């Protein structure tokens, strides 16, 4: 089971935003992050906890291993307004966190 | 262009059946594992099922086990999801998603997604 916090965050452009994802058991570094905008399919951002997919801006970064992981947006941009999901890939069934809605103030 | 296009979503009565299809293009379909992921209205993402490149390895979420069947036809570059015994709880947008686990991202993650197809279960 994956638990994300906070469920929602509001921040200004240029701010630093951090989202936490906790696993109910050790998942090594097998964690991915996704970004989803309203009415759109999710976009794959990152895998192995910290490796950015091609094309993902460097203001996105990830850290963690074991049971606790973070996704940080270093300088929030207007286009980063979205819901972010973590996903464990350590074992089946694959599971997602509940999501974190990032809103721009 | 790498693309996944789902089809087959519809309004169906509880207890009914539906078959979803996903047409892949722009990449060598037979070299990728594939998944179905769903999202109920206003809710989060839920992984539904996984199939290996040959179809020899398959996994399901507990919520659909025994009711849904995933399959693929590599000659037709297509992925399928046969859904039987549908309930209201199965109402969702169903996404077809390419798995990058054995090609670039080490473990099962979803690097390419379709636009989704809506399944509504209601009387």
Classify the beta-strand content of chain A into a percent band: over 45%
Instruction: Provide the β-strand percentage band of chain B.
Output: over 45%
What is the residue-mean pLDDT of chain A, rounded to a whole number? 97
- List the chains of the largest interface with their residue counts: A-B, 24 and 25 residues
Point out poorly predicted stretches of chain B: none
- In DSSP terms (H or I, runs of 4 or more residues), the helix count of chain A works out at 0
Residue stretches of chain A low in confidence (pLDDT < 50, at least 5 long) are none
Class derived from helix and strand content of chain B: mainly beta
Q: Classify the helix fraction of chain A into a percent range.
A: under 10%
Annotation field: number of helices of chain B: 0
CA distance, first residue to last residue of chain A: 31 Å
Helix and strand element order of chain A: EEEEEEEEEEE
Average pLDDT figure of chain B: 97
Count all strands of chain A and give the number. Answer: 11
Radius of gyration of chain B, whole Å: 14 Å
Assign an overall shape of chain B.
globular
Label the overall shape of chain A: globular
Biggest pleated-sheet summary of chain A? 7 strands, mixed
Radius of gyration of chain A, rounded? 13 Å
